[in-house]
Request: fold
Amino acid sequence: MAIESIQVFLPCQTLDGFPATLEEDESEDLLAAWTAAWHPGLLAAAGTVPAWASVDLPPASVPTTLEIVPAALDSRFAGQADATVAAGPRVRGVRGREQIVAAALAAGGLPAASLDAELEAEFVALGLATLLAEVLARRMRSAANLEASGFGADVVTAARAATAGRTAEAIEAIRSCYVHLETARARYYPVDFWVLDLVLLAEATLGPPLRAEVASPAPLGIVASGATVAALAARHPDSLAAVRAAVAAGRVTLCGGRDDDTPALDALAAEGVLGSLRAGQAVWREQLGTGPTVYAARAGCASPLLPQLLGQLGYVGAIWSSFDGSRLPEPHAGLVRWEGAGGSLIDAVARRPVDVRTTAAILGLPERISDALDHDHTPVLTLAHYAGTASRWLAPLRLAASRSTCVGTFVAPEEFFRRSGHVGTTMAFVADDFPPTRPPATPHATGAASRDPIAVAIDAAVREAEGIVAARAALSGLLRPAPIATPAAALPRGDGRRGLWSRLVGRSRSGRDDLLLDNGLVHLRAHRESGGILALRRPTDRGNRVSQQIAIRSTSRSTDPARPWSMPEDVAEYTRMRADTVARLRTAAGSDCIESHGRLVSAAGAEVGSFVQRMALVAGAPVALLDVEVRLAATLEGPPLDHHVACRFAWNENDDVRIRRSLHAQGVETSRGWFTAPHFVNLERQATRGPEDVVTILTGGLPWHTLAAGHVLDSILLLPGGSAATRRLAIGLDLERPWDAAFDFLVGRIQPAAVDVPDNLRLTAAALEPTADGTTRVRVGLLESVGRAGEVRIGWAAEPIRAAACTADGRSRDDSGVRIDGRTTAVHLGAHEWLHLDVEFHR
Reply:
């Protein structure tokens, strides 16, 4: 008996109840069954479009109805229907669209049709688009009502033309079907909603997978770093040519920015961030003839510094999300105007991307789209996957998108930003809102093939600091020298009476206190029992500023059934330092230091490691140097934030201390329990009377730090997978410009400020350039570094003849209001703003 209708069973009783999420096998079987029903041979034989029925309430079987049950739903179907007797043809327990089509044709007594693959793909795309459009209509509290239009007749016309070999007629009828779908969509949402299709590149997917992606009939964006583009050019010139052609045709937008995804943004100074962006653009331009116009990064976090840099470098927008699982601040909007320092703005797509590597994600698109339509002024959805890894159903979705906007307007990212009209909600976040980069969860190997990640980070910080210090030195000759500081007066040594410290720790037979170092600016006292720093203070301080020890942290989860939710800090265990020797030594340079040797002992009394710690003071500076060597009896294991070796700094628990960490070498107030700070950490005591005092930990490139208690900071020295480490840190008291001290420390020197610069400002510099009219021009960056907006004045050694603001890539700006007042330039800076100036002098 000829079939007169086709029925596919779905896991809902009405489309209002169509599940927003399904298991992957359920999603795959459902779409395979539904799109199989849209095979032209079946449509032409039935003379109507497929219908659906509830798998939980199946209707009575009809002899002329072909029934298709998705394999994953077969058990639910069998529980409600007669599993053994079917009045008409029925397909059950078959997986895979091609297999279901073959089984359905056989069940309906139809010949196995041989169709053009591209034409059959058109019907798959139409079937998928119809299901998504109908579910979306119900999500939007409407109905497609396709049965009241000519949709069904056009579908049958297309199917019969296809089976008869009339391809052009079939395509024309399919186009008419999409018109009906768009008309139905216009009833519940008459304006565009946008879809950005992003393809992420990795070195393993640069060959045929990338060429297949670039051939997409719908516009897309390619996300890559400069290093990945360089690898593409070197290894896959055919893929590079395909990308170049697609970009020229306007079908592909280049999305990127940095030259590499490592190191993470929060490991870099401001110059490093800008340099990484410039290097990335240079690679794109060299290999593809044009640079990225939309900023995106696969990994490495976002940064509050980006809005002011991206706009100046020619970017039209940004993809807010990274694709490594980092959770950025949630704007709760699709399109936002991301506001950075100094009022800089850039448009950004902020909704989290849909990972379309799964069929469940494709089937869940109506839920995601309806949520955007309900809540966003400019609804936009981002799809993302690595080249060659997408669900098989993305291809028919793209084909449908090239024919119609019934499931969204697929648009290249650059075109989206140009057409969106800057109507996003303005969002501004404080710097501490951006999540720090987590330490690697995989233990590092101890062999030569894989280095300690902390050592790698320190080496990178040193290389960066060398360039920054060299540029600063080249600039110093143009700046007004700093006032000569009055040397610190030597404190009286007393009348020979033994004070409290002497009574507690004793003196040597010569009368010298072997546990005390004093350079006239700071006093450092070592602890005889532990070998750490007992006290570090100014000569005029009434009490200790900070103490220090080394410890191994381990975390054992609570076994108390009444406290299964215990926080890690509640069950953390720390070893104790037990010094074997604490001795005062004379260094090769002729200065004194204190060196302690000892053991790290667990709470149970077991020896689990050894240490050597050297403490010294910097002549003429309120800075103590700290060299630490640690060797463990066994390799560390466990999550890195719960198991590590740390240098611990403690202060008075009754002090009100504000913690300010370095981010791009700027001081950022933080309330996080752990954070990155590769340059410095400030412990700023809020004094009720008199000036504040500040303890600065110069971290020497150590990336990760945790606030172990309200008055204890742990700087992580060694991560799981390691068993030995040598690190250097420093502790400064009341340093006015900790960023300069941090860079000096990284390159192996600490010196007082040589130029007269405001205490909230760091100067960045490019090379000096002679001009054709006999002047010297320097491009200098003014980086506000403590979050204090206001006017800043720079004193120059000579009178400037011209000073003007410019962008990071050298284009002039007229919105900054730079003034010249004799040998001084003055300009207003916003909190954490980085303003670039071109200043000219007579030679």
Summary: The radius of gyration is 34 Å. Residues 453-476 form the longest helix (24 residues). The chain has a mean pLDDT of 89. Residues 761-842 form a domain with the Immunoglobulin-like fold (CATH 2.60.40).
